[in-house]
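Escalation from tier 1.

The customer reports that the assembly of two entities below gives different structure tokens on two consecutive runs. Tier 1 could not reproduce it. I'm attaching the input and our single run for tier 2 to review.
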Amino acid sequence: DVKVTQSSRYLVKRTGEKVFLECVQDMDHENMFWYRQDPGLGLRLIYFSYDVKMKEKGDIPEGYSVSREKKERFSLILESASTNQTSMYLCASSFQIGERNQPQHFGDGTRLSIL
Amino acid sequence: ILNVEQSPQSLHVQEGDSTNFTCSFPSSNFYALHWYRWETAKSPEALFVMTLNGDEKKKGRISATLNTKEGYSYLYIKGSQPEDSATYLCAYSGGYQKVTFGTGTKLQVIP
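Tier 1 run:
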């Protein structure tokens, strides 16, 4: 079974802090994604990566950056956390071959609160 | 940002009832339509990936159909059980590597 592991289930940080959310997958997937989920808005794509050191902006990249130094690990960085970044964050991964047809495998999510 | 809409937003059904919900998506540049089930306190789990107009997929009591020309997909659950209670998400792929998710249909099956 594919395993996508997010480093924390719950996290509380203060405004202005630099926050790192880590995601690791064990299936050698090329693609990795970061989403946030807010009530009434569904899953919105922040960034995705299709290869090591490659990244593409999603629909809501402002205030975030990402890092993919190794194939299995994709990090989401909140450069200076703000209260409007309080949300549930989900990481996902998928194969790239025929990538449009490949399902995404999700982690359990990190519920982040910015005080 | 692409418009992927799901309806209804939520519904309650009695155990044993059959139910269905809708996902609407852009009919142009279609590549794939995904369905996921997201149970509380768990991660979203893929149900189906559909690519061809007229596709029908089935997994146990759950099935889905796809109409790419008019831009909709239906998800059906036959004889709903309490363990079917979850949020059902559809996601549209118009190319490249990413998908756009709908806001989901939250299903509650009452024993």
